[in-house]
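In practice, a research group might receive sequence data for several interacting partners and want a quick structural hypothesis before committing to experiments. The following worked case mirrors that situation: the sequences arrive first, and a predicted assembly follows.
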Amino acid sequence: MISVIGARRSYGDFAALDDVTLDIPAGSLTALLGPSGSGKSTLLRSIAGLEQLDGGRIVIAGRDVTGVAPQKRGIGFVFQHYAAFKHMTVRDNVAFGLTIRKRPKAEISRKVDDLLEIVGLDGFQHRYPAQLSGGQRQRMALARALAVDPEVLLLDEPFGALDAKVRADLRQWLRRLHDEVHVTTVLVTHDQEEALDVADRIAVLNKGRIEQVGDPVTLYDRPANDFVMSFLGSVARLGGALVRPHDIALDRDLERARAADARVGGSPGVIEAVVERVVRLGFEVRIDLRADSGTRFAAQVTRAEADALGLVEGETVYARATTGPDAAEIHPALAI
Amino acid sequence: MKTSTTARIGLRTVALGYLVLLIAVPIVLILWRTFGEGVGAFVDSIRTPAAISALNLSLLIVAIVVPLNVVFGVGTALALVRGRFRGRGLVQAVVDLPFAVSPIVVGVSLILLWGVDGWFGGLERLGIKVIFGLPGMVIATLFVTLPFVVREVEPVLHEIGTEQEQAASTLGASTWQTFWRITLPAIRWGLTYGVVLTIARALGEFGAVIMVSSGFPGVSQTLTLLVHSRYIDDHNTYGAYAAATLLMGLAVLTLLGMTALDRKRSKT
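A structural hypothesis for the assembly, expressed as tokens:
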């Protein structure tokens, strides 16, 4: 378990961390999610001891490590750009922490081989980092961090430098690895899809503050504020309220739309809109709309729904939010 | 761009002619004069006590200057790249000063500082002979070779950044361990080039050294001073050619060493 208590850090006038308090449960995979400049990387580097806090405390597994050097915090750290030791082979890279700790040769050799097998780099022992792909380098960096049996594993945008396909693969792979190894893991990312996909807890940061902490479903369905809502997934503005595009229902008949809307408490009401474009994205269909007030928004429906509606460009439809009173109660923006 | 064949050949001829006239002809001439009288005469000329002493002195100065430049050069480069201190710009300028200042000025200023009447002239009265002794020649050579290691290591330090060092520290390595195991191997090529340039310059330095050396043959002559004194004082032109060839041979060895290292580098 990691506890961050009242952490503060400024660079000149800029407050990177503004009184951040956060508990990260033991064995969890927590994502620190936020836009650039939100303080998520500073928070991670402070936990690692690579940054010094101006105020506040960091406690790892019951030990106050606020003034402790990174060497003695019992952490493993993975950098966005791998930080591979270029002049060492894969084997020596992974063995580094154990060599520093002067472990017996046989033990190092066994442990390195085990780890390389876990990260799928078996047989690459004698290669140099320059001879590996980006994804392989990052898996090597993970093995290197895990070799010293860290109390916590800290990942700073670990997949940020990789292309989309490799990134998605490695994400799944990290999730499975975490299920096997169970080390408390903190992952920094600006990619909401990555956070929703891989983490079991997400802390959303903005301007050096924590906006909301919770499991992915709670954050998605019950965002604490507009920022969290718009940062986790796309949103449409419907009559002054923020609604997810897939929570918008379209109807050609005004009376029917009104009747259906009446059953949903505290909704933004029925909005008349003109279809501007119908875009088929495989299974989903996105319908770009312009409300009579002039604001544009998009609704997302399934292909079956789109076919049943049979909408064409220039047609008038009636849009309403399908989110129930529950959501409206949690997110006041919906109740306007 | 399309260039006609004649223009292309013309350009190449001019460029090659320039190189041949300025660099190749003088070198070949000296070699020709040296070996024109046979290899035996050359060997005899560089085996006189004065020549052997000059070779030894030149190598001794290199042997003292290189380690000092490595230690302080790497230290200075680290401070310039990683340090955030006031006056960094000033230090940058000072490091480049030896490039700009004529070596003879260096020699004169060293006499002003370390000579009998200089600020540190007291050392002379204590029996430590700096000017007209080995220390003076070493200090003069240090001055002119100071920028090489710093300027070769600095860009490499910029390029490697600090992430590898941070990774090493999260893996438990102390600052000292990180330096030896991560930083030093990462800058080794820049450092090697700096050392090669330092060796070449230290062997070839003349202007600063002649000011602070007593110039006695067999005692305080470096190879460059030997070439000079044989030619000017002894009117022994052949001896001067032979000593120059020896000096050139050392420079070629240094260059060959550098090329060999370059090959090795491109393989890894």
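Before designing any experiment, note the following. The mean pLDDT of chain B is 90. Chain B is about 80% helix and 0% strand.
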